[in-house]
Design goal:
Shape: globular
Helix content: 40-55%
Number of helices: 14
Number of strands: 12
Radius of gyration: 21 Å
Largest sheet: 7 strands, mixed
Strand order of the largest sheet: 2-8-7-6-5-3-4
Distance between the termini: 41 Å
């Protein structure tokens, strides 16, 4: 029977506590949300949603074509200019998703004969980019610049080091300054995914590369998502103008994909301008994460100290992680539940995301709920 093997795989997942199902949420939920990536609380901000509505009315519901045909509007160009200026780079290129931006950056910057050095904790989109690239990939231990140096030493041709800036599972930060130094020793490029750093790290939320003094460097390329701190949808690549020009001509997820919907572009631009006007939101998101961590560890839970806005709590098993998250939901708290294969070390976790708009009472309630629901 066609696809008969699927039933066997489904049963194996069910027995292992790894079966996933979709859970549609209502437009308005009574749950306290610590599961989304809306770090700055902008997804429902009236300035952001209003900009989305106005952009849709002016430019249409969709981009109508690929960026090189009809999918580039004046709005897209405006977003790219302001995003590059805010983060400190020469140029930016907007994509339909952060996933597409990562595939573009990695594949287009690693031609045949090149070496890709990839952190073991990287996001799936970076891993997939390495798999699709024509270069050879070496996976190195997590956050280990010496391992990167050793890997680069095995190759004489073009090389690129690929890493998240803030890793999505535990919320720990990559040693960007040390990675950049290693890359410069060997003449390699550095491509980093700042999905969890933009809006949270750096002066006024300008990102992890900006905080590390790497913004605008000729050998550094940064990818970002517009769907986390900016509360919208889409992604972008930031870097030297010549790199961005190369992506326009060589990145398949740019050339062959429909452009980002105008509503999403307008919303992201409004959120970016709001962040520029209210830079304290970035510091507040970090402060909330620190308070969550302090409360969880004081309760005896195995939480990981956050470098940005992600706080993870270790769970005994995949099955107990699922039950823990479900019990939290029953008690009115939405938290993430990360299980294999989403976690590179095989350890299941609850994942809490700090938001700049959380009150002290909500932070306390979240900690009490996670503690009381512990299996």
């Amino acid at each position: 029977m066609a696809f008969g093997w699927i039933d066997e795989q489904t049963e194996l997942r069910r027995r292992s506590g790894l079966l996933r199902t979709l859970c549609p949420r209502p437009a308005r939920s009574p749950l306290l949300d610590l599961a989304s990536n809306d770090y700055l609380g902008l997804a429902r901000h009236p300035e952001v949603t209003g900009a989305a509505a106005r952009s849709a009315r002016r430019w249409g519901a969709g981009a109508t074509g690929s960026r090189l045909v009809t999918g580039t509007t004046e709005l897209h160009a405006e977003l790219e200019r302001e995003l590059a200026a805010f983060c400190g780079f020469e140029a930016a290129l907007v994509f339909s998703s952060g996933y597409a931006a990562n595939l573009a950056a990695v594949t287009a910057l690693a031609p045949h004969g090149s070496l890709l050095v990839s952190d073991a904790g990287n996001h799936a989109s970076l891993i997939d980019g390495c798999r699709l690239a024509r270069g050879t990939t070496q996976v190195v231990p997590h956050a280990d610049p010496d391992a990167v140096r050793k890997a680069l030493g095995t190759h004489d041709g073009p090389a690129v080091v690929v890493s998240d800036t803030v890793f999505s599972v535990d919320g720990d930060a990559a040693p960007l300054s040390a990675l950049a130094a290693v890359c410069r020793e060997r003449g390699a490029g550095l491509v980093v995914d700042d999905a969890h750093g933009l809006g949270v790290l750096g002066a006024g939320g300008r990102g992890a590369a900006h905080a590390a003094g790497l913004a605008g460097a000729a050998d550094v390329v940064v990818t970002v998502t517009l769907s986390k701190s900016l509360g919208s949808q889409g992604g972008a690549v930031l870097g030297p103008a010549r790199v961005i020009g190369h992506l326009v001509n060589a990145a398949r997820t740019f050339i062959f994909d429909t452009g980002l919907a105008p509503a999403a572009a307008g919303a992201a631009l409004a959120a970016l301008r709001l962040l520029r006007r209210e830079p304290e939101r970035a510091a507040r998101a970090r402060a909330v994460a620190a308070e969550l961590y302090a409360g969880l560890t004081a309760a005896g839970l195995a939480a990981v100290g956050p470098d940005a806005a992600v706080v993870s709590v270790r769970a005994p098993s995949p099955e107990l992680a699922v039950r823990w998250a479900a019990d939290c939901r029953t008690a009115g708290l939405a938290v993430g539940c990360f299980r294999p294969p989403s976690v590179p070390d095989g350890i299941s976790r609850l994942r809490l995301t700090a938001r700049a708009d959380l009150t002290e009472a909500q932070i306390g309630r979240a900690v009490r709920t996670v503690r009381a629901s512990r299996p």
